[in-house]
Write a structure and sequence with these properties.
- By secondary structure, the chain is α+β, with helices and mostly antiparallel strands.
- It contains nine helices and 21 strands.
- The protein has helices at about 10-20, 25-30, 35-45, 55, 60-65, 190-195, 240-245, 325-330, 345-350; strands at about 70, 70-75, 80-95, 100-105, 115-120, 125-130, 140, 170-175, 180-185, 200-205, 215-225, 235, 250, 255-260, 270-275, 280-285, 290-295, 295-300, 305-310, 315-320, 330-335.
- The strands form four sheets. The chain has a six-stranded mixed β-sheet with strand order 12-11-14-19-16-17. A five-stranded mixed β-sheet has the order 1-5-10-9-7, with no helix packed on it. Strands 2, 3, 4, 6 and 8 form a five-stranded mixed β-sheet that branches.
- Copper (II) ion binds near residues 136, 185, 193 and 198.
- The site of copper (II) ion has 5 residues, from loops.
């Protein structure tokens, strides 16, 4: 499709989406077709020289990186530890790239939702409150009874299954197996409920723990801002190019542990590549022995890996999806090791890829 005039505005689409459940309504009424038209549209809406208003969003991707939510704990009779959280589904407009607003559905007002962290063998309770205008659930990856699986059609008579607006339900299960998991809504249409932002990382630490490290969570996601069933913005932790604007500060020679989760909807594969370095890969984090020493891994939706590496030299090191289209539409960032004072990030990024703002007047 070549006619740009046929593509509606973000505001128009958001208005349309509020009238219905999102995707289908907006698609039908806008006449937008599937494919790459939306990407041209997204380029036009990236505002040069601006950054996202993190305060308005209510979360900052730099802080999300190392924000692990251990919940509240108490000892049960018999000595076992109960770990408990409350997750509230809320509809909320967020800014996913400078000037690009998106009507998200969130857990606790943030995308991704809180990184829930527990230890192997604990008893977990997640109190879910649905304050959204749409039915939702929380489906956890892990090992648990059917009633606790967050599946519509399973457990409604016991108060579970699909949780309607205004309703609540408590999921209870044991923390198993140790590894890196995720949680997400499982209400149909599933793609829309996930793509809107209802997901988060879920870490179960092995009983003996892992070696001391600088730990961070990277949830690879994307946003279909014009509801054409293709993403216009790609990111780690929601905000496109955030870690170009604000490189991730790490220390030289310190062990870095990345909890990498792919929840990207509408594209079959995502990937992670780091420049000038290699990492140990622990697929799903379910073994304490790495399976691979590499600089690139590929993940389908729902796949995750724990990556460990050290940077032996100070400098700015790019990391990005080794899918050029994703990298150019936001899935690009930098690690800043030490205090290199070597380069202009905007110039470096522009040299690597065709950024929407063209590299002039971009992030300083
Ligand atoms: Cu949902």
């Amino acid at each position: 499709m070549g006619a740009a005039a046929a593509v509606p505005t973000v505001a128009g689409l958001n208005a349309l989406s509020r009238n219905g459940l999102g995707g289908e309504t907006a698609l039908a009424e806008s006449g937008a077709s599937n494919g790459h038209t939306g990407h041209e549209f997204a380029h036009a809406t990236f505002a040069p020289g601006r950054s996202v208003d993190h305060r308005a969003n209510g979360f900052d991707p730099t802080e999300l990186l190392r924000d692990f939510d251990w919940g509240k704990t108490r000892r049960l009779a018999g000595g076992r530890l109960l770990r408990e959280w409350t997750l509230v589904a809320q509809d909320k407009e967020i800014e996913v790239a400078p000037g690009v607003k998106y009507e998200a559905w969130t857990y606790n007002g943030r995308v991704p939702g809180p990184t829930l962290r527990a230890r192997e063998g604990e008893k977990l309770r997640i109190n879910f409150v649905n304050s959204s205008e749409h039915p939702h659930t929380i489906h956890f990856h892990g090992i648990h009874p059917a009633l606790m699986d967050g599946m519509p059609g399973i457990g409604e008579r016991q108060g579970g299954g699909q949780i309607e607006p205004g309703e609540s339900f408590s999921y209870e299960f044991d923390a198993a197996p140790f590894g890196l998991h995720l949680y997400h809504c499982h209400v149909a249409p599933l793609a829309a409920h996930i793509a809107r932002g209802l997901y988060g990382a879920f870490i179960v630490d092995p009983e003996q723990g892992r070696p001391e490290a600088d730990e961070m969570v990277m949830v690879m996601n994307g946003f279909d801002t014009n509801f054409d069933l293709a993403n216009e913005v790609y990111a780690v932790n929601t905000v496109g190019f955030h870690y170009v604007n604000e490189p991730i500060r790490v220390k030289r020679d310190e062990l870095l542990r990345i909890y990498l989760v792919n929840v990207l909807e509408y594209d079959p594969l995502n990937s992670f590549h780091v420049h000038a370095n290699f990492f140990q890969n622990y697929p799903t984090g379910t073994s304490l022995e790495p399976s691979e020493y590499t600089d690139t891994i590929v993940q389908g939706q729902g796949q995750r890996s724990i990556l460990e590496m050290k940077f032996p030299f100070d400098g700015d090191y790019m990391f990005h999806a080794h899918v050029s289209e994703f990298a150019e539409l936001g899935w690009t960032g930098f690690f800043r090791v030490g205090d290199p004072k070597l380069l202009s990030l905007a110039a470096a990024a522009a040299a690597y890829c065709k950024l929407p703002w063209g590299g002039d007047g971009g992030p300083a």
